[in-house]
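Example 3.
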Amino acid sequence: GEEVAQTPKHLVRGEGQKAKLYCAPIKGHSYVFWYQQVLKNEFKFLISFQNENVFDETGMPKERFSAKCLPNSPCSLEIQATKLEDSAVYFCASSRIAGAYSYEQYFGPGTRLTVT
Amino acid sequence: RKEVEQDPGPFNVPEGATVAFNCTYSNSASQSFFWYRQDCRKEPKLLMSVYSSGNEDGRFTAQLNRASQYISLLIRDSKLSDSATYLCVVNPHNNDMRFGAGTRLTVKP
């Protein structure tokens, strides 16, 4: 598509429950990125993919968080056993290429996760 | 020290005013720089990339100073619709963007 699509728009989970978020990048974009925005403007990089391969996972919490990008499927970000501090807006972004001289990233509308 | 630092503001300016934002970054190897705007509860939208020679897009001018490691954004003839948070974004490597905390701008009639 012409825009990055994210589902669901809102997600509410009780502590300890699983949360799964989805992202479909712009058609033709090879790179997908996940970010977490906890406070109003504090973005944290989580993980990036080049097609179905992990490109950079240096921001990914070691426990409870996992992500996949499989062929012909939306990418997904899964949080096992959610905690209150996981409450945030999770943004997905895509770009055509990546690297030191990078191209612009285009963001999806985000998924607001509330853990109660 | 944060990797990307911005003055959080808020900047409250009247319509028609000129306003400038600065941003500093810590990684001297950074190669790509961007300004995004974010409206309340929405996704960041690319405003403009920042090129070494500086670049202009209508009322918006971006400058890069590699020696001092700062980026600026100048908005001329401010409109009410320019009210938003402006995010300075730097790519140190591998395209995992580093975001500033944002500068809040409110343009008033």
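The CA atoms of residues 37 and 43 of chain A lie 5 Å apart. The first strand of chain A starts at residue 5 and ends at 7.
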